[in-house]
Amino acid sequence: MFMKRTLLTAALLIVGAALIFFAVQATKKTGKNETQAVQPAAETAELKIWTLQEETEITQQMCALFAEKHPDYNLTFTYAVMGNADSIDALKKDADVAADVFMFPSGGIPELVEAGLIYPITMNTDVLQERYGEAAIKSCSYKGRLYGIPITSNSWFMYYNKSMYTPEEVTSLEKMMQKDLGKNVKNFSCAIANSWYMEAFFYALGGTLYGVNGDDPSQCSWNDADGFRAGEYLIDLAANPRYVEDADGLANALITEGKLGALCSGTWSAKTLKEALGENYAAVKLPVITVGGNEYQLRNFVDFRAAGVKSGTKYPKIAMELAQWLGSEECQLMRFKENYTPPTVKALAVNPIVLESPEAAALADQTNYAVPQPTTSKLADYWTPAAAFGSGIVNGKITRSNLQENLDAMVKGFTDSLSQ
Length: 420
Hints:
Blueprint: H1 2-30, E1 43-51, H2 56-69, E2 73-81, H3 87-93, E3 101-105, H4 109-114, E4 118-119, H5 125-131, H6 134-139, E5 141-142, E6 145-146, E7 149-154, E8 157-161, H7 173-178, E9 188-190, H8 199-204, H9 225-239, E10 243-245, H10 250-256, E11 262-265, H11 270-277, E12 281-284, E13 288-291, E14 294-297, E15 301-310, H12 316-326, H13 329-339, H14 352-355, H15 358-367, E16 371-372, H16 383-394, H17 403-416
Parallel strand pairs: 1-2, 9-10, 15-16
Antiparallel strand pairs: 3-15, 4-15, 5-6, 7-15, 8-11, 8-12, 13-14
C-alpha cells in the first residue's frame, strides 16, 4: 500500500511539473503575462487641417494613412480650405480657430515667429536635414531653428503652346513679342499688377529688395537708375497690344481657346494646361528680356510651400509628426502623381515618374536663376505697395513722366511703413 501511495504522489508531482513547464513556455512564446495583458489607452487628438482647394481630397487620404500608421493614436481630423498665401493673415486674424497643421509660404516664417504663432520643428531634425535639399531647409528656418516642412518649391515659370512658338523663340521675350501669331491671338501674359510676379523685372536688372541678402529692412534699390529702366520696360510691355494682363484666370482661358501663345504660372496650372493643350503643351524657364541692347534673365521670387504647426496647438507632438508625414517621400510622390506638384525630397529628384515632367524640369531650371524671398519680417510691407505700383503700370496712370516719383513712393512704402 505504501508503495502505491508513493508512486501516485510521484506521478502527480511529475504531471504538475509538466503543467508548470508548458505554462512557462507558453508565456515565453507569446510574450504575455497577466501584468502585460493590460494595454495603455490610446492617445487622443482632434486636429484641424488647412488644405489647399486642389489638395483637399488627397490631404484627407494622407491623413487617413497617417492614422493607419499610428494605431496607438485615437485621431479625429477636420478640414478647411485655405490658400497658401492666405494662411498667415488668417492665422494672425484669429489664432484660436486656426488649424493645428497648415500650409504656408516659407517667406512668412520671420513674421510668424515674431508674432509667436508658429511652433518650431524639434523632432527628427537630423533626419529632415538629410531628407531635403539645403535651400529648402534654409528657407524653412529662422535664426537657426526649423519652422516648416518643405512640401514643394514655390515659384513660377512659363508655359507655352508648341504650335505657336519654337523652343528657340521662347528663350527671348523680344522674339516672342515680335512674332505675329494671328488675328485676336495674344503673344504673352504675365501679372504685372501682382506683386509676386512684378519683381522678376527689377531683379533681372540687378535690383535688390531689403539688401543683397534680403535681411536689411531699410534697403531697396528699385528706385535707382536700373530700377527706372525696369519700370520703363514694364510700361512698354503693358502697352503692347500683343500683351495681356493676367487676372482672374484670363490667361488660362485664352490659352485654352487658342488665343494666347504663352503665360506665366506655377505647377498648380500644369494639370489644366496639359488637358487644354495636349501634344502642344510645353513648359520652360522664364525668357530673357532685352534692355539697352543687353539681355537680362528674368529672375523671380522663390520660396517653399511648407507645412507648419500652430504654436497654440493642444497636440504639438502629434501635429509635428503629421506635418512631417505630409512632407514625407511617400506623400510627396502621391501629391506629384495627383497634381504634378514638384517634390523637395532629394530621393525623388531621380524618380522616373518625376523626371518625365516638363513642369518639374522648368521649375528646377528657373530656380537656378530665382532669388530667395527676403527673410526679414519687413517683407509684409512689400506686397501692397508693389501691387499698387503694378496696377498703376497696367492701367496707364504711371508713365515715363511720373515714373520716378512712383518708384520713390513704392520704395518708401517698402521701407518706411513700420517706423511711422
